Amino acid sequence: MATAQSERIIAPEDRDTYVSEFQYDVNNPPVVDGVGGLTEAEIAEIQDKIQQAEASGPPQDEIIPGQMWSDKVGIPEGYDKTEADRSEVAIATEQSQPQARTFMATAERCKSFWLIPFKVCGEILDRYEALGGETSWLLLPIEHQSINPDGQGHRQRFVGGVIYQHPDTGAHAVSPMTMALWQRHGWEAGWLGYPLGGEVPVEGSTTIDGEISGWVQQFQGGRVYRTPILEGFQIASINGVILDKWLELGGPSGYLGFPIADEAGVTDGMGRFSIFQRGEIYWAPGLGAHAVSGTILDDWKSAEGPAGDFGYPIAPMEWVDEFTYIQSFEGGEIQGEVSQGFAPRGLTSQYIQADSQEEADAYFDAIEDEWIAESLGSPGISLMQKGAPVTYGPCILKPNNIHIRTKSGESDFGIVGFKPSTTCTKPVSSIQHTTNLRYKYYQWWLKAASATAYSDPGLTTTLVQKNIEHHCRGHVDTWFWGTAAGVINYGGKEYYARVYPDIARFSCRV
């Protein structure tokens, strides 16, 4: 089988409900095994109280009414003053006994924290301190550490999460949202096993808007991804051959985007699938794993998917021409149509004055929306002819053509790029370009390269950017497009521009 994880079978009509099971509202955080449930504001309040206490002076080594941290700054709601005062004395005792700390360092180092009677020790303490201790997202411990059910390590719960320690994997923290999914699959005894590291950021790509930040945490049996959605997060696990296929297609930076639900079984009891932001991957015995997306996915679902006449996918999607692609299934082929979408061509832009980057973006975004609505895109249309009246600067931003160049050497397949240029009729204080080169993958424009260029210090009248390029990895016909945004400083004010080169096609594998 593709995976030994979930035995859950999901029917086509239950997909949306299934995906919603992996959504978490940031304003209603989950409580898992007694951990979590606090909003960002509540977490910040506790962190602030702890920082105020530590800044108010050294801890008292005995309880002196009116002189304790709790008397000086108060205590957060839900905590006990008696326990807070006792923990302050414990902190002072530890700080005054370096010989005790030296001894513990040779055995197992432990440490007390304000407000609570629980110590944190050993590898769990090392990880806790590395993450920021009591003022980190974990906040304070809510229990002493305990032995894991398998007898192979320890765990300790905190207000904001849990730290698991195992001799083979080390000590790593898990957030409540990931805990909810981990619990769903049996904790460390399930197919995910123990965490191999903490949650780390990862970048993904959207069709036009650029980068979306997500996070990933690796476990012994697979990975858990967390991605932002409106007012919350989507959390899902992925492993096995479906994980391998997804990574082969670019992972979160590929056209499928992030996973948004756990892998599940198909109703025939044979195949398995995972749902992503912009498509799905199906696996069946003897057929391997293949991605299905776009209009092909829509048409296939309308034909009952794996249960219909077409059966499972048996090959990846392939191009027929510029705007058409096909995919082979057990029972035949399905053709997909790609909308040309938004691809304004060859436009030049005069710089406009704006009080902020956000204001300038809103102006250019409005123009793009009008292009889409009117299907504009013929060469020679100037931004000066579009939009509301604005104040123009003395410079013009030109995209110039996307081109391919080659160098000597058998292993060099060419370099694709373009050279946006700013020219000014009057000297300006500075010029900056921020440029993206994109390539078409089925119906999506994905990022191939990005770069920033700056003019030399002092007054200047021109900037030609030459550092935006993609080194081809082979010979495959690929469509390229790009965007270039410019900022100039003239007379103490900022002026902005945005342009797009013509779409171009080259023999260049991305």
Question: Explain this structure to me?
Answer:
By secondary structure, this protein is of the alpha+beta class. The chain has three domains: 20-198, no CATH class; 201-337, no CATH class; 349-507, Immunoglobulin-like. 21% of the residues lie in helices and 34% in strands. The chain is built from ten helices and 32 strands. Strands 21, 22, 25, 26, 27, 28, 30, 31 and 32 form a nine-stranded antiparallel β-sheet that branches. Strands 1-13-12-11-10 form a five-stranded antiparallel β-sheet. A four-stranded antiparallel β-sheet has the order 6-7-8-9. The radius of gyration is 29 Å and the shape is flat. The two termini are 31 Å apart.
Average pLDDT score: 85
| Beta-strand content estimate | 25-35%
Query: Could you say which structural class the secondary elements and strand pairing correspond to?
Result: alpha+beta
**How much helix, percentage-wise, in residues?**
10-25%
Terminus-to-terminus distance: 31 Å
Which stretches of 5+ consecutive residues score pLDDT under 50? 101-106, 206-211, 339-345, 372-388
Strand count? 32
Radius of gyration: 29 Å
Q: Main sheet?
A: 9 strands, antiparallel
Overall tally of structural domains:
3
Rough shape?
flat
Total DSSP helices: 10
